[in-house]
Amino acid sequence: MTSVVFVHGTGVRAKSYEKSLARVVSGLGRVRADIRVVRCFWGEEHGASLGLDGASIPARSKNRGAGGDEVLDEDDPLAVWALLEVDPLAELREFAEAAKARRGGGGRAGFAPGRPDPWQAVADTARGLSLEAVTDGGGSLDELVADLAPHLGPAGGRVAREISRTLGGTPPADGIEAIAARAVYALAVQRAEGPHGDEEPLAVDGADRDTVVGALTDQLGGAGRGGFMAGAAKGVAVRALNSYLSPLSSLAHTFRGGITEGAVPASGDILRYQVRGAGVRAAIRAAVRDAVASGDGPVVLLAHSLGGIACVDLLAEPDPPAGVELLVTVGSQAPFLYELDALTALRRGEPLPGAFPRWINVHDEQDLLGFVGEKVFPGRITDLRVNTRQPFPRAHTSYFAHRRLYELLAPELPA
Fold first, then answer.
1. For burial by CB atoms within 10 Å, which of 86, 204, 219, 295 has the most?
2. What's the pLDDT at 115?
């Protein structure tokens, strides 16, 4: 039986590793029943932490502030999702402003007594949204639904209150269904990740996200499914992005302490690996040794992000672990670090050792931390591109929720 040793990347701790491991077990199990997944969790022992309780983080002065002028393209759906990562209700509020502008900026145009308010019907529907009928038979979509289901009611209630507050008593306008559905989804994701964020962002395949949003849109009335934005919604994203991205730098300064502490696992692991990486490589070596000892088949290293760098360094050492027939790096920076001459065991210009195993490198073009290697190591590495349909940085953490990844890997894994 083939053993796949799953090596996590930067910033991962126990809770998020278990989630990722479960996704890998489920994903590989659907395409190759003969696969045994082996743990390799190094984050707790060899990951970074603030050993002096953040004593190095400066306090923000009262006069400090900064602005920005970054603008994203309204025609790019990822621009909207990037906006909703920042503020799940921003698009809905901009929709209300656009509706007011179309009727000349006047106040609410009330309805005749006894006439039902169409916005109240939308708000009532938002409160009762459900994902009970959304399933893919035990795959990544079911995992996403399970993560979101406990938070759908509160998210729908929040969106309903916003609709009533900003649109109640005004004439109907096209496009609210899809916008409200995206707001409910974004709020539910935010709640699922907790008040301070999980150890890493919730891993979501873009196709699963679109299925969930489509189901919510259908329940809200189904309008606006043909395009990403329609009617009054056109132009909402770019206005909101102009409004919301500009103050982000100032907010970052305001909350620098919390942001820095929250970023330590991700950025700190990378820095610590550069000078203390031997411990991570030893953990991987031990996992491979155990897999070889307890199995009767080939061993595959499946490594994400920094884990891929550590695996390349380990396999390029003079005494690499025996038994590894395939290396699969996912969203990894190993080719980039080689080009920078920043790998530990392999200098720029040196070829991969002759005994280095077959290497498959998976990347998503939206993942700014994923790199390609075919031109870096000609004839020694195969690049596979996937499309999780997620904006960065979520694209970097969503590989193992992406069904296509396992379909591509299935025929590549040794028997």
1. 204
2. 67
Mean pLDDT value across residues 354-367: 97
d(CA 199, CA 183): 23
Evaluate whether 197 touches 16 at the Cβ level (below 8 Å): no
Percent of the chain with pLDDT over 90: 67
Q: Is the peptide bond before 414 cis (omega within 30 degrees of 0)?
A: no
176 pLDDT tier (thresholds 50, 70, 90): very high
Q: Tokens representing 397?
A: 């953490």
| Burial (CB count <10 Å: 0-12, 13-18, 19+), residue 300 | buried
Higher-pLDDT residue of 241, 174: 174
Q: Which of 218, 243, 193, 219 is nearest to 93 (CA)?
A: 243
E-strand ranges in 223-375 read 299-304, 324-330, 358-364
Supply 59's token pair: 């306090």
How is residue 235 written in tokens?
């132009």
CA gyration radius for the chain?
24
CB-based contact 59:27 (threshold 8 Å): no
On the question of pLDDT at 269 being above 70, the answer is yes
Q: Which residues of 71-81 are buried (b: 16+ CB within 10 A; e: fewer)?
A: ebebeebbbbb
| Residue 254 · residue 60 · CB < 8 Å | yes
- Residue 385 pairs in a beta bridge with 363
Token output for 55: 């004593």
